[in-house]
């Protein structure tokens, strides 16, 4: 299977299962980068509008770098690295909140699967798992840059589609707002489209499965 087709299948699956415990490992991987960049930018008391653009661009850059790495010869190791980062961030959040939840099982399972695939030298399975982690970032940005602004624009409840997922009430896009009297939704779609260009281009011509 071509890498672009694999990326599309993985992205759709992660999106549809975003609100379930099954995608816990992938969500926390994406949250780790978003929250790290947010913390770093806010530490400098950056204006909200500017911080929204910077965080979005940093996430785009992160996705691009991960896709470039996934095209390298040793790409199958990427699943283990991503799973380890996801686990580390989840444990950090649990220590901060002083509680664990049902996601702990799937986050641990994600790391266990990655290690098992590496031990068994199941390179194709590693590539599928790595893509699930990598494309969690574009999926997260779809929620933050498209769905949240759309729900805000039409005054819809964040729980409107709670059967599938809950749309965040505040996101990267809400930091930007209606800059220069341009509607929030226009800015957010522009940033999401900007992300799609390198993601679509770099998702092709990688290892086939």
Query: What's the total helix number?
Result: 9
Give the strand content.
under 5%
Oligomer description: single chain
Task: Summarize the main sheet.
Answer: none
The total count of strands amounts to: 0
Q: What do the pLDDT scores average to?
A: 89
Q: Low-confidence spans: pLDDT under 50, at least 5 residues?
A: none
Helix content: over 70%
Terminal Cα separation, in Å? 5 Å
Could you say which structural class the secondary elements and strand pairing correspond to?
A: mainly alpha
- How do the helices and strands follow one another from N- to C-terminus? HHHHHHHHH
Cα-atom radius of gyration: 17 Å
Gross geometry: globular
Q: Can you tell me about this structure?
A:
This protein has 209 residues and is mainly α. It has helices spanning 3-16, 24-43, 48-69, 78-97, 103-119, 123-134, 136-153, 172-176, 184-203. The longest helix has 22 residues, at 48-69. The radius of gyration is 17 Å and the shape is globular. The mean pLDDT is 89.
């Amino acid at each position: 299977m071509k890498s672009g087709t694999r990326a599309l299948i993985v992205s759709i699956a992660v999106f549809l299962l975003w609100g379930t415990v099954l995608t816990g490992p992938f969500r926390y991987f994406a949250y780790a980068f978003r929250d790290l960049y947010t913390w770093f930018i806010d530490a400098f008391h950056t204006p909200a509008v500017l911080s929204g653009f910077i965080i979005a661009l940093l996430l785009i850059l992160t996705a691009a770098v991960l896709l470039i790495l996934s095209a390298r010869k040793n790409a199958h190791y990427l699943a283990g690295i991503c799973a380890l980062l996801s686990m580390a961030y989840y444990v950090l959040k649990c220590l901060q909140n002083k509680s664990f939840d049902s996601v702990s099982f799937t986050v641990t399972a994600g790391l266990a699967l990655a290690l098992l695939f590496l031990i068994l030298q199941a390179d194709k399975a590693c590539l599928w798992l790595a893509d699930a982690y990598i494309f969690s970032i574009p999926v997260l940005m779809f929620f933050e840059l498209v769905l949240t602004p759309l729900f805000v624009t039409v005054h819809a409840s964040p729980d409107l589609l709670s059967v599938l997922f809950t749309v965040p009430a505040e996101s990267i896009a809400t930091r930007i707002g209606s800059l220069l009297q341009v509607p929030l939704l226009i800015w957010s779609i522009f940033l999401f489209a900007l992300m799609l260009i390198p993601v679509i281009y770099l998702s092709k011509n990688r290892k086939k499965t």
